[in-house]
Amino acid sequence: EDSVAGISGDLFEAYLKPYFSNYLRPLCRGDCFMVRGNMLAVEFKVVATEPADCVLVAPDTAIFCADEPVKREDEERLDGPGYDDVGGVRKQLAQIRELVELPLRHPKLFQTLGVKPPKGILLYGPPGTGKTLLGRAIASESGAHFVVVNGPEIMSKMAGESEANLRRVFEDAERLAPSIIFMDEIDAIAPNRDKTHGEVERRVVSQLLTLMDGLRPRTQVVVIGATNRPNSLDPALRRFGRFDRELDIGVPDDIGRLEILRIHSKDMPLADDVDLERIGKDTHGFVGADLAALCSEAAFQLIREKMDVIDVEDETIDVDVLNSLRVCNDHLKHAMEVTKPSALRETGLVEVPKVSW
Ligand code: ADP
């Protein structure tokens, strides 16, 4: 430990020491590992080990940190989606950053001002609008640990285990803090107790309330609840500052849809005749997940067309064929005809958009 020098001293204290002091970790040359601390996720790569190519790090192992970061060429991002991957929710994103990222990153700010940092927010809106994606983006951009709890799944476990499972989730989140606990379909975990007759449900709701109330301001754990049916939640969950804010993640408008289309086609070679703005206007009722499906359906349509020049049995595909691939207007038009907005499937309220081109 003493041999760690220069700026690496800070890095060692902040990241590596806790990472190694609690566990015996074997390391081999070339290994990459992620260490979280101070709301940052820092990736380390083992460039050399002595005396062998593989070592077990013990308390007296000397660790040297290279001053210069190793450039990462194979991947742009370290972990998960970023803010750039979420479209059409600019206002909501700004609010979530303020409510979730700020307290996770700068707990001192809240301590200094003597205010309690937010403990939770509730996102509501139809499925496929990007609620989970938002949660993941916040977690990866702020380096927080991200746990997803699926409401129906946790409830379907054997009777009596749901509460224990829930407790474990909170314990793990505290241990690995800073953390975001994302509760998808939270209405399944916390249905209105007046309207449910199930004994298990009632107990689980109380357990969740207790766990949320038990989160200490300093623990740096934030709960994000997501639901399609905010009104079927137990009212106690929406009171007493358990969720500091409720945000509507609605169906995107045409500008939002354009943003989302741009995101999902950014790595796609598009032909010149593709007019994303027009598609954005013509996809009324489509949510983010529908637009993602639309883009991949268009790509599949192109692949289907090319099947005569692609030899499935062959190990490689001709570079000229790959370079010639362009998703064009017709592919997207076809995709529009076969992709239905999920709002239509769920409620029947939205008219199927007419393809005008
Ligand atoms: P929800 O949690 O609201 O049901 P998800 O976040 O699971 O929705 O969305 C599923 C997928 O649809 C995402 O992984 C993403 O590919 C796409 N998607 C949904 N909403 C958006 C959005 N606002 N921007 C970009 N992509 C989106």
UniProtKB/TrEMBL annotation:
Protein name: Cell division cycle protein 48-like protein
Residues of the AAA+ ATPase domain: 117-253
Section covered of the full-length record: 127 to 483 of 796
Domain CDC48 residue range list: 6-72
Residue stretches spanning the membrane: none
Organism per entry: Panicum virgatum
